[in-house]
Amino acid sequence: MTAIHLENLVKNFGAFTALKxxxxxxxxxxxxxxxxxxxxxxxxxxxxxxxMESPSxxxxxxxxRDMAGVSMGKRGxxxxxxxxxxxxxxxxxxxxxxxxxxxxxxxxxxxxxxKAIAEFLQLGPLLNQPSAKLSVNILQRxxxxxxxxxxxxxxxxxxxxxxxxxxxxxVMRTELKHLQRQFKQTMxxxxxxxxxxMTMADRIAVMDHGVLLQTGSPVEVYNxxxxxxxxxxxxxPGMNLIKGxxxxxxxxxxxxxxxxxxxxxxSDSLATTANAGARRDVFYGFRPEQASLTAxxxxxxxxxxxxxxxxxxxxxxxxxxxxxxxxxNDNGLEAGMKARLTVNPDAVRLFDAANGAAMREI
Length: 362
Ligand code: ATP
Fold this sequence. Notes:
Radius of gyration: 24 Å
Low-confidence stretches: none
Largest sheet: 6 strands, mixed
Bound molecules: adenosine-5'-triphosphate
CATH architecture of the largest domain: 3-Layer(aba) Sandwich
Helix content: 25-40%
Structural class: alpha+beta
């Protein structure tokens, strides 16, 4: 098993910098998701780990081995792409067996491993089927099996679920996590889908515009985002971020949010942090599930109630300047009503409005 060290990794394409000085260690057996919007540099990072692209600067080490000049084939990595690379003229069995035959394993061992992985990925009944006739969902499952079967020390997956349907994606999230637990590979998973990253990864590395913004466990990154971008990108809906000004009132530090009113007094530790800085312009942040609403004629206008089954997302304010609160589905609020917002004081996060950085509690 293998740890991956990215040391001051940079990638330029001509004058364009796709990756700016990335510093990241992925521990042996760890599942790390590279998460960010399209074009942020996730695939570029992945391709350099795989050996498909060379870094412009910096180093990639597998344990203590520098990968400079080591070809893709010699790195011992398994790679699954968004577009499954399957030999359609072969049967499911032959696709799964391919990598083992190349490695000249004995037939009995090939048979054992093909049957084991086929059972794990529910491909058992399809082993003799020609691959050409399989659905997209099954083809992607087969592509994962074909890479996993050779038990690479490092397993790289680049948006493997983006072409499969939603129900199957949910199943595969669980299966991929089980697969990694079983084989204990070091896994790097590229995705723009925060839910995939949150549900599968041990740690998430959030990227934007070629910059690694924050690394942490899903809960750490969700609860304590390093900046407004991470706060908004994680969660569905993302964190509410209301522009406001720090003011003192009746001995308490509060945030005046204009049309959204004044916050309750900040917790002592957050007030200490806020008052230690020179900045008065902030974003007042809280997760949509960390607030409650009470019908109240003096409150904020409810302009949209979005029912998503067990939960309801209530939109307050106006279209362009809205706050979202996630409530149970029997909350009784309807568009056109007014509601008073109460935020859980422990869930409040403040961000510097000038640069979006979190004001960390001290
Ligand atoms: P996506 O999911 O859309 O692929 P990504 O985060 O994986 O997004 P990358 O594919 O790593 O993004 O691309 C990062 C940036 O580098 C993009 O602006 C892309 O256009 C650019 N880029 C990638 N490969 C090349 C290349 N070979 N030549 C020039 N620019 C490139």
